[in-house]
Design goal:
The complex is a heterodimer.
Chain A lengths: L1 H14 L3 H21 L3 H26 L11 H19 L10 H4 L2 H12 L4 H9 L1 H33 L1
Helix pairs in contact in A: 1-2, 2-3, 6-7, 7-8
Chain B lengths: L1 H21 L3 H25 L5 H24 L8
Helix pairs in contact in B: 1-2, 2-3
Classes of the chains: A mainly alpha, B mainly alpha.
């Protein structure tokens, strides 16, 4: 049911020409996705989705619309070729998932390798009650640290680029 | 009981979604986004009791805060929307 909502919201967000409405629909999309993550018991993924998707991205999109304009231009020609490309890629991806084990299958490779170890020892070793959170924040702590570094570097790069642009414009004016 | 509540919440979310799709003015959509956010909060809380994990209440509290801040951001934007292009 939630998935149907997510799908409908995504299609409508692409369909609408009013960009402000599209930004808001994308906010709804993120909220629904976050609810879906909570249902799947991945609580901190849901946190991230709600904070970044519903909060931060909506604000960024609103700022971009503020800078440009609210109406999308009508397309010059029908985008059949990109549509076909997207459909073929999606079909291939779905075809790839056919080989995957069923959702929740206890004999799946992902369930029998390290998952029992995590499930048995996660709370004792990390002290985090939620297993998904303990894997993300403790067992993969270095991975998360690397991600934080990448995000920080990207943010610094953007700041440096935009700051340089502004300074050059100021020197042009004088 | 909780199951009925969850079903009712889903129905309400569907109604809010139709308003968000159809809504002629921006304010309709803002209201729809806000109410859907509230419904998400309630849905998570109800699901927490349905799956007998009341600690979901904390998550729904956080969502309530986020929802509030998001709505305020959108409304502030609408108030001062005269950008450089002028729309």
């Amino acid at each position: 049911m939630l998935l149907v909502f997510v799908l409908a919201t995504g299609i409508a967000a692409v369909w609408l020409r009013n960009l402000l409405a599209s930004a808001m629909l994308l906010g709804i999309y993120s909220l629904l996705m976050a609810a879906l993550w909570v249902v799947l018991d991945a609580v901190d993924v849901a946190f991230t989705e709600a904070a970044v998707g519903a909060g931060l991205t909506t604000a960024l999109m609103l700022f971009a619309i503020w800078l440009t304009g609210r109406q999308e231009k009508p397309p010059v020609r029908k985008p059949w070729f990109p549509l076909a490309g997207a459909l073929i890629t999606g079909g291939l991806l779905i075809f790839g998932t056919i080989d995957m084990p069923k959702f929740g299958d206890p004999q799946a490779p992902a369930q029998v390798h390290v998952a029992p170890y995590y499930l048995e020892n996660a709370e004792a070793q990390t002290g985090v009650p939620n297993v998904v959170t303990s894997v993300l924040a403790s067992y993969r702590g270095f991975d998360t640290l690397g991600e934080v570094t990448v995000v920080f570097t990207a943010g610094m790069g953007v700041v440096v680029l935009l700051g340089g642009l502004r300074r050059r414009r100021r020197t042009d004016e004088t | 009981m909780f199951l009925a509540a969850a079903a009712a919440l889903l129905a309400t979310m569907a109604l809010g979604l139709t308003r968000a799709f159809a809504g002629p003015t921006v304010y309709d959509r803002v209201l729809a986004v806000n109410s859907i956010g509230t419904k998400t909060v309630l849905l998570i809380a109800v699901l927490g009791f349905l799956m007998e994990r009341p600690d979901f209440l904390d998550i729904s509290l956080l969502y309530a805060l986020l929802n509030f801040i998001g709505t305020i951001a959108v409304l502030r934007f609408i108030r001062q929307r005269r950008g450089p292009v002028g729309n």
